[in-house]
Every structure is written in structure tokens, then in C-alpha cells.
């Protein structure tokens, strides 16, 4: 082989990057489907899979072995329930994909919210098994809540994998598949738009319609793309030319500095001086790694681990921006548009909840409430489920805030009270600290 041919062979064409979060009710098969994807993509070898199968059989959990690729801690493996936010990478022909596997149980919704804020698209896994779909989609199930949370995080696209089509209660029934589509599309189309919702039947356990459409014998009625084909068809606009804005999801202090996990939302992050909020502190980035490989820069849509010199404490939800960027403001007081989804009781002045904004989880209290009636803005005494209104919101300490911008996915948040998602909000105006 001549030198030119060898050089051409070694050229690495950078694939597009895509981050997706698997959401849905507990037991829908999210982790099993994720494990199957990693196996079909060559990220898990056959020997490792056989090891998982043997170990799961010893625990009388034989059907769970695929999920062990993402459910790595002993508690998750023993109970068959995802509790933490699982993460893995794989490649299709055209795309490098980050999987975020969200817990389905209502006790772990905060971990799901953390993941959905790092994703480009949501992948909703629904069980087609008789009664399981109904249990997840009816009031009290996590399917609806996860759908609302995905939309509230600013995601504009959702792929619905109708799983367990091979189950004996379904047997690849086109009628069952269409029933699930009919039951969910009104809500999904209202939130995401008809053109940004895609359905496909799969078997996560058997691997049907994951890498390729291999349904000709079991479901000849489905002629759409496989999941991998769908991934390669997605076009996610990137914003490399914008000023840098990156969100911090994790930070640890070690070896004379901080190691920080960041997702670059806009712009490009490199080894330069940047601002860290809160406080608009100027910091220098020492090193950058992606998937344990050192790199010179991180593009929009990518997640990386960076090292900086020691500074004041850093928390999840803190923000890194370009030096010239001026839209981020530290404050503990702002006006917000609220949509009340599920309030246990009336919401009045002084009501307290937990706000999830990006990776930040912080207690808040509600101030005055206002409603628009005709051309007038009137102060009201309370809000209830289904209401849309404007509210004052107070935080104990100043946090980095931006006014809502749909295209940038900034200024959006979720309010929760115990295990209940109370509502969603958009920052309308940042006020002076109180």
C-alpha cells in the first residue's frame, strides 16, 4: 500500500454527535433496549454478554441480563430498577451517540430531569404488553410525566419505541401498535408537533428493528426505518459560531484543581480563559477530555470533562461562558410564566417547592401571583392545577439566570413538590437581588 493510500485510509471523518435520553414508565424496557443497542453496535462483546447472562441466571434474573450493560450498580441489578442516570456511547454509520438512560420510578425523577437537560432528543420507550402500557400512561404512571418533562426541558423532538412487541400478549399485533399510537399522539403532537414525533415497533430483548428493519416475517405491515436508520436521518442544528455557553453537571475537587463535567450548549470550548457563574469568576481551562481522550476543543452538543485551577466551590448547575457573553445574570429574584400541571393544593404566596433548572436543584418560594384577564394584568390570591399565570420567584442565594429563549433552551425550569411535578416555568424578567 503506498503512502498516499495509507494516509487516506487513516483520515478520520468526524461523525455528527447526538445525545439522546431514554424515558418512560418503570419496566418499559429502557435499560434492556439500551443494552441491546450497545451489543448490536459492537460496544459489548459476546463474552461479556454471556457473563451477564450467567450472573443474572444465578440471581434468578435471567431476562434482565441485557440491562446490566447500563445498570451497573449492585442495587440496580438486584432489583431490576434503574435508580441512577445511566450513560454510554455507541456509533452508527454516520453518528456518535450518547445514551442517557433515565430511571422510570417516580422516586428518581430528579435524576431523569438531570439527564433530559443534557439531551438533544427524547426516546420514549413504551411497553406494548397488555396492561403495562395502560399502567404507564394513566394518571400516576410515569409516561405522561416524562413526556411533559422532556418538553419542559426544551426538547423539540421525540422518538417513540413501542417495545415488547414480541410479548405473547401482543405477538406483533398491528392493531395493538396502532392503539398505542392513537392513545398517545394527541398529547405528543400537541407538545412537539406532528412532524417531530416518530413511532416504530421494536423488541429490545430480541433486537428486532434496532440496527436494521428485520421485521419482514413478524411484522410485514411495518415498512419504516430501523432505530439506527432513524438516528442517522436526524439533523440537529449546532451553534458553534455563537458565544460559548456551557452547563456544569458535575464537579469534583482533586489534585490541586477541579474536574468538571460540562455540556457545551452553544459555541466552542477550548483551553482559554472563560467566565464561571455565579460570580463571573475568570478561570483558565487546563485540559479537556472526551470519553477519556484528551482533545483541544469541545463543540456545541458535546459533553466533556475539563480541569481548571482551584477556585471557590463549584456546583451542578453552574455555568461557563465566553468572556464577552453578557446574557447570564446572577440573581435570587425573577418573574416567571408558570403552567401548573399537578398541584396537590392551592398555590398561594409563600408556597415552597424545589426548582430544577438545568442541572441545578434549589428550593424556591413563590411571591405575588398575576393573571391576564382580557387586556388587564390582575393580582390573584392563588393558582390551581391547569392555571397559567405570572409569578414572583425567590431563591435563597443568587444563581445564574437567563431570560427564556426557546431556540437556546435557556430560562426554563421545572417545579416539584416531594414526588410530584407541580408545573413548568419560563424566566420572563430577572430582577435586582432582594
UniProtKB/TrEMBL annotation:
GO cellular component, one term: cytoplasm
Origin superkingdom: Eukaryota
Catalysed transformations (reactions): GTP + H2O = GDP + phosphate + H(+)
UniProt keyword list: Cytoplasm, Elongation factor, GTP-binding, Hydrolase, Nucleotide-binding, Protein biosynthesis
Membrane listed as a keyword: no
GO MF: GTP binding; GTPase activity; translation elongation factor activity
Annotated compartments: Cytoplasm
Record keyword Hydrolase present: yes
Chain ranges of the Tr-type G domain: 15-238
Entries under InterPro entries matching the protein: GTP-eEF1A_C, P-loop_NTPase, T_Tr_GTP-bd_dom, TRAFAC_GTPase_members, Transl_B-barrel_sf, Transl_elong_EF1A/Init_IF2_C
Subunit field text: Component of the Dom34-Hbs1 complex, also named Pelota-HBS1L complex, composed of dom34 and hbs1.
Protein family membership: Belongs to the TRAFAC class translation factor GTPase superfamily. Classic translation factor GTPase family. EF-Tu/EF-1A subfamily.
Protein name as annotated: Elongation factor 1 alpha-like protein
Taxonomic path: Eukaryota, Fungi, Fungi incertae sedis, Microsporidia, Nematocida
Amino acid at each position: 500500500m503506498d503512502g498516499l493510500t495509507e494516509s487516506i485510509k487513516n483520515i478520520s471523518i468526524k461523525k455528527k454527535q447526538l445525545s439522546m435520553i431514554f424515558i418512560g414508565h418503570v419496566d418499559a424496557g429502557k435499560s434492556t433496549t439500551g443494552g441491546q443497542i450497545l451489543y448490536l453496535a459492537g460496544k459489548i462483546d459476546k463474552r461479556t454478554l454471556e457473563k451477564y447472562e450467567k450472573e443474572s441466571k444465578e440471581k434468578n434474573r435471567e431476562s434482565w441480563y441485557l440491562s446490566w450493560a447500563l445498570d451497573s450498580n449492585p442495587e440496580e441489578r438486584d432489583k431490576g430498577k434503574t435508580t441512577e442516570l445511566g450513560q454510554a456511547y455507541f456509533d452508527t454509520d454516520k453518528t456518535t451517540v450518547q445514551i442517557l438512560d433515565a430511571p422510570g420510578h417516580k422516586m428518581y425523577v430528579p435524576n431523569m430531569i438531570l439527564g433530559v437537560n443534557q439531551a438533544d432528543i427524547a426516546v420514549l420507550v413504551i411497553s406494548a404488553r397488555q396492561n403495562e402500557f395502560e399502567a404507564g400512561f394513566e394518571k400516576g404512571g410515569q409516561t405522561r410525566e416524562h413526556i411533559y418533562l422532556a418538553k419542559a426541558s426544551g426538547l423539540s423532538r421525540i422518538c417513540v419505541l413501542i417495545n415488547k412487541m414480541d410479548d405473547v400478549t401482543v405477538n406483533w399485533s398491528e392493531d395493538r401498535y396502532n392503539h398505542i399510537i392513537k392513545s398517545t399522539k394527541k398529547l405528543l403532537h400537541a407538545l412537539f408537533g406532528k412532524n417531530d414525533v416518530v413511532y416504530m415497533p421494536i423488541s429490545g430483548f430480541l433486537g428486532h428493528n434496532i440496527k436494521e428493519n428485520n421485521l419482514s416475517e413478524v411484522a410485514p405491515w411495518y415498512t419504516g426505518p430501523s432505530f439506527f436508520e432513524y438516528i442517522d436521518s436526524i439533523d440537529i442544528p449546532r451553534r458553534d459560531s455563537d458565544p460559548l455557553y456551557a452547563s456544569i453537571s458535575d464537579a469534583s475537587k482533586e489534585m490541586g484543581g477541579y474536574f468538571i463535567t460540562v455540556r457545551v450548549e452553544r459555541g466552542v470550548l477550548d483551553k482559554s480563559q472563560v467566565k464561571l457563574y455565579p460570580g463571573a469568576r475568570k478561570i483558565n481551562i487546563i485540559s479537556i477530555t472526551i470519553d477519556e481522550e484528551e482533545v483541544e476543543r469541545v463543540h456545541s452538543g458535546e459533553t466533556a470533562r475539563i480541569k481548571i485551577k482551584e477556585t471557590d466551590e463549584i456546583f451542578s448547575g453552574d455555568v461557563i461562558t465566553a468572556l464577552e457573553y453578557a446574557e447570564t445574570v446572577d440573581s435570587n429574584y425573577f418573574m416567571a410564566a408558570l403552567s401548573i400541571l399537578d398541584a396537590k393544593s392551592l398555590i398561594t404566596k409563600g408556597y415552597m417547592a424545589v426548582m430544577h433548572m438545568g442541572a441545578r436543584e434549589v428550593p424556591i418560594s413563590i411571591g405575588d401571583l398575576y393573571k391576564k384577564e382580557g387586556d388587564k394584568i390582575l393580582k390573584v390570591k392563588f393558582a390551581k392545577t391547569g392555571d397559567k399565570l405570572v409569578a414572583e420567584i425567590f431563591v435563597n442565594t443568587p444563581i445564574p439566570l437567563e431570560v427564556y429563549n426557546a431556540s437556546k433552551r435557556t430560562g426554563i425550569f421545572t417545579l416539584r413538590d416531594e414526588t410530584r411535578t407541580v408545573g413548568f416555568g419560563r424566566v420572563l424578567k430577572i430582577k435586582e437581588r432582594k
